[in-house]
Amino acid sequence: MLEEFYDRINLKSDLSDLSKVICEKYNLGQYISEEIILVGYEDFNFILTTDTGKFCVKVFNKERTYEDVKNYIDRIELANSLNINTPKVHNCNNGILCEIALNNVKFRLCVFQYIDGKSFYDLNEIPTETEIKNIIEQMAHIHNAKLKSDFIYDKWTITNFVKEYKEKEKYLSNKYNEVFKSLAHKITNVKFEELPTSFVHGDIISSNVMKDKSNKLWIIDFAVSNYLPRIVDLAVTSCNLCLNPESIDKTISSTKMILEEYQKYNKLTDYELEYFPLFYDLANAMGILQISYLNSLGETSEEDKFWLTESEKGLSFSTPDFWKSII
Question: Residues 228, 249: one domain?
Answer without folding.
Answer: yes
